[in-house]
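Teaching note: in complex prediction, the entire set of molecules is handled at once rather than each chain in isolation. The prompt given to students was simply: 'Predict the structure of this complex.' The entities are:
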Amino acid sequence: MDSKRRMIKKIVQQLGNRLIDAKEQANETVLHIDKKDLPEICQYLYQEQGARLFTMVGNDERQINTMFALYYVFVVDEIRHFMTIKIFVEENDPTFPSLAAHMPAFNWYEREVNDLLGLRAIGHPNRIPLIFHGDQMEAVYPLRKDYIETGMLHFENEALHFVEYTGADVTEIPVGPIHAGIIEPGHFRFGAVGDTVLHLDARLFYTHRGIEKELEGKTLEQAMFLIERICCVCNVSHAVAFAQAVETAANVTIPRRAAYIRTLYMELERLYNHVGDVGNICAGYGFAVGNSQGARMRELLLRLNEELTGHRYLRGVIALGGVRQDIRKDEIDRITNHLNELDTDFQDLADILLNHEIAVDRMETTGRLSLKQVTELEAVGVAARASGRDIDCRRDLPYAAYDQLNFAVIVQEEGDVLARIKVRILEVFNSILLIRQILQDLPEGDIVTDIPKIQPYKTSLGWTESARGENCHWLMVDQDNKIYRYRIRSAAYSNWPVVAVAVPGNIVPDFPLINKSFELCYSCCDR
Amino acid sequence: MNEEELGTDLKKRIKEVLSGSLHIRHVDTGSCNGCDFEMSTLSNPIYDISRFGVSFVPSPRQADMLMVTGGVTSNLEKALRITYEATPKPKMVLAIGACACGGGVFGETYANAGGIDPFVPVYVYVPGCPPRPQALIQGILLALDQYEEVLKRGE
Ligand code: SF4
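The expected output is the structure of the full assembly:
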């Protein structure tokens, strides 16, 4: 028996007679337990087995089995396997035990399940609404199957749930939701003493469009258009995560050439994001050279994307079962030449930035996050790696062609703005190397394969490492092969909570810089 | 047309219609950030739209024009109204992208109205998902034409 089997067996044994039912599928073990056993079993997985939280999904399954279901998906990186804890919640007792008090990463998930499905987490330390900001949310639960669509909900008044400061020296500074620059909406409220931030409240979900509900009842092909529009600058990674969830459920392996081309597009997406973000961080302290150079190189990459695919942000390139767009020989040369130029130009920018005393001084020790903080809050991606959390699902849970390619995972220890910019800079060079390998080894063959009908009500997972970190998608289809429930947990959803932790102790003018160093999408998070 | 030709036109028209400068405020009412990013590319060194007389301003009180992205979510309806009210005339409003024009792929949901025109009067609809930077400039040019008409009519 290999180590994976041994570990799964050990966990199952530990559950003993608390286990109601166990199911194996793809790379996932679904363990059904009673909701009263939830805290103990999750703590066991989390703390003793080193599992990390991947996503948590609430689902209205009353039409299937008369109950609501909650799925707590953990991943054990060591054995590349998912352990999912499933509980049922009855309609006449729509409550479940909260885990947020001991495991803060559950905070948002539990509140979201309350807002959208009306399932209450008993013992949650802070149950204020997450998704809706209005005051009229009496028993309106859009993700329940019997919710009657009546158009957009309007709110007369805003419900204010912010920390109130009583000290005479504390100044409250509200910012947003509409910001001074051309960026997405979010509201930040600082409690500051002098110019030092004491506490930060962030209210997000302004761009909540109800995408998960809108996906329900759509065919898989229709769904792709919505998935690509969760977020523009992460659209390839979302599309691939969705395609992988579908392919896993349908038990399909995509052609090797398609896997390579997917990887190419994903790395091109990372490249323009990271290059632009490095420039953007410079804007956080008025370093115009860095800002302009980053923006220039990013624009050139967008133009390359357009030449290759017809879309500046690579929308429409991913198909279920493969890719829609092949790569020609002359395009390979075109990319190679572009990367050669970018390589030198970006190296110049990196040299200027990292050797500029004032630039480094602004970034060093600013917005620091410890390894403990990022681990407890389950941060992912650049934010996690810059604080020493060595996770990258391209390596840990390989997909597309990543297991065929050589690359290093970049980890820094300091956890400050400088560390986050360094991770990005090094990942840019990493992406360039990856793309070179892909173009060199690109196998011949088909670029797409057919997807058979999926078994109804089977669940499956898809994931990708976007420029911001791990995205995780959860899929269940109905009898007509249409979407029954879809849950999107983006990197931004995992990472926004750490921003609020990184800011206190810094000066107010450093907030834009710290915020930019995470460079999180609001739309990815809000959906 | 490429951005240089469009830019030359833009500069000329801004001079004719608004005596040389156009101040634009961006309002995101629930976009996927694609339209926002294309708007911000207008400031990169390749387009550098400021050389044609355009500046993106931090407050609606300084703005001649609102460029609105996204299809208006429940949580941003109020922000859109307040921003519109705070904008001095001529209040040229551009609906940027499929979402702002008519809901895009999302349409109307429990949290999304599916377009900005029930909330604010729109000068120009700029389609695209997202519209390319050149299309954004084209949209601004069309709005200026309309505003010129408004001035002629003495409204
Ligand atoms: S029109 Fe397209 S790019 Fe613009 S906000 Fe809507 S989905 Fe995003």
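Point out the following to students. The domain at 22-147 of chain B is CATH 3.40.50.12280 (Rossmann fold). Chain B has a mean pLDDT of 92.
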